[in-house]
Design goal:
Elements (H helix, E strand, L loop, with lengths): L4 E5 L2 E4 L1 H20 L4 E4 L6 H10 L7 H8 L8 H18 L11 E4 L6 H10 L3 E5 L10 E4 L5 H18 L4 H18 L10 E4 L2 E4 H22 L8 H21 L8 H16 L23 H23 L15 H36 L5 H30 L5
Parallel strand pairs: 3-4, 4-5, 5-6
Antiparallel strand pairs: 1-2, 7-8
Helix pairs in contact: 1-6, 2-6, 6-7, 8-10, 9-10, 9-13, 10-13, 11-12, 11-13, 12-13
Length: 431
């Protein structure tokens, strides 16, 4: 797998996404051509993280994913005519058959291409395909052997977001190859676009740590580091203000300096008359982002180890940056409506009604701009640090810590400034 690995960071291998894109494109081309020729496909993925995704993807693409007398009896109502004990036993057998063989009950011949999600988990299936001469497309993680499959796709085979995204691309290629009707293609295209927007929430930098709560996968590293950040901010606020004095001490001086900085920033963007109510909101955004951007390094590596992944900044997850951007949008609309009432909506037809679509689009692209700007900065910072540390591991880390502190402050300042500017803009008479 060496040729598929971009770098190693804190004992975790980072895959080369260029290779992923290349082999995924090859796999999609192969599947589209095969589907246009009426070939049959089998998707194999029995691991807990992937089973429901595989079943869903295979159903959409009309693929087999891994018993018919009992089903016929059930559909005809014959099971209900049997004694209760016998009927219960047959229903249990039917449930077990559906669980184990539901995906291949209509398969009457060997598949032409097999898509495998986890090479190690499905090693038996790979061996069978090799024996039977069936081409395979397989997700390969850093601990896999790409030589065992015809088209290896370097990817994280433990992350649901990664599995979902790749499966959707592969099954979309199959559907396109089967030549859906024009109307169906338009409908599927719309669904795929909506699905792509949902999949953006799975974008990650590095290896994340998850909790499985019921049927939901929770980004544990985001929650843990967010709680740490909140605890740090609350502790600093408490200890710095518990003994305020007329003549401030060093700690009080520091807090007053931060407050004055945030107050000036808010006043500059919103205006002298309206800025005071918004100082807490802008200050909270600035401080949370500033501390969050450095929180991945709060606990030294290997002092506190996680089963999978690492403690990373909450802003390392696009869901966090989107949430912060949406908070800003809510504040933006609230400020405008609170200040100007329903006349606020009149700005959308200024200076001419012809600009109505553009003005509406502008407001709804603001949260996207804020979220992707912050996440993109974190992504760039992570990649640059990973490359430099891999090249000069003993020299770079300390200077990079100071660089990271500087970039964290810049990113927090940019988002806080834009948030205040948007709020100030919404309370003006026009754009």
């Amino acid at each position: 797998m060496t040729s598929y690995i971009f770098t190693e960071r804190k004992g975790i291998h980072i895959l080369n996404l260029t290779q992923t894109a290349r082999f995924l494109s090859e796999a999609c081309d192969l599947l589209a051509n095969a589907a246009s020729g009426g070939k049959q496909f089998l998707i194999v993925g029995t691991k807990y993280q992937a089973a429901d995704l595989v079943a869903s993807a295979a159903t959409r693409a009309r693929c087999h994913y891994r018993f018919r007398d009992l089903e016929d009896k059930e559909n005809m109502g014959l099971l209900n005519q049997l004694p209760k004990k016998e009927a219960a036993n047959l229903k249990r057998q039917l449930a077990q058959l559906r669980k184990n063989l539901g995906g291949i009950k209509y398969m009457t011949s060997l598949p032409d291409i097999v898509i495998i999600i986890d090479q190690q988990k499905e090693f038996t299936a790979i061996q069978e395909c090799i024996t039977l001469g069936i081409p395979t497309i397989c997700l390969v993680d850093t601990d896999c052997n790409p030589d065992l499959t015809d088209i290896p796709i370097p990817a994280n085979d433990d992350a649901r977001a990664s599995i979902r995204w790749i499966l959707n691309k592969l099954t979309s290629a199959i559907r396109e190859g089967r030549g859906n009707t024009h109307t169906a293609q338009i409908f599927i295209g719309i669904l795929n676009d909506l699905n792509d927007l949902y999949e953006i929430s799975g974008v990650e930098v590095g290896q994340h740590f998850y909790w499985q709560i019921g049927g939901f996968q929770v980004h544990a590293q985001v929650l843990i580091t967010s709680w740490i950040v909140i605890a740090i901010l609350l502790s600093l606020a408490f200890f710095a203000t518990r003994n305020l004095q007329t003549i401030p001490t060093s700690g009080q001086n520091f807090v007053e300096y931060i407050l004055e900085f945030i107050r000036d920033l808010t006043r500059t963007q919103i205006g002298e008359e309206e800025y005071r109510p918004w100082v807490p909101f802008i200050g909270t955004m600035f401080l949370f982002i500033f501390v969050s951007n450095r929180s991945g390094a709060l606990l030294p590596w290997r002092v506190f180890e996680l089963p999978h992944g690492e403690l990373a900044a909450p802003t390392n997850d696009i869901n966090t940056t989107v949430a912060l951007a949406l908070l800003t949008s809510v504040a933006y609309f609230y400020a405008g409506l609170h200040k100007r009432g329903l006349s606020y909506f009149g700005k959308y037809i200024q200076p001419t009604p012809v600009l109505l679509p553009i003005n509406i689009l502008e407001d709804f692209t603001k949260p996207l701009s804020l979220s992707f700007r912050l996440f993109g900065n974190i992504l760039a910072d992570e990649l640059v640090v990973a490359v430099l540390i891999s090249l000069v591991p003993l020299v770079v880390p300390i200077p990079m810590m100071f660089l990271g502190l500087f970039t964290s402050a810049i990113q927090a300042l940019i988002l806080a400034t834009l948030a205040a500017a948007y709020i100030g803009e919404s309370m003006e008479g026009h754009h």
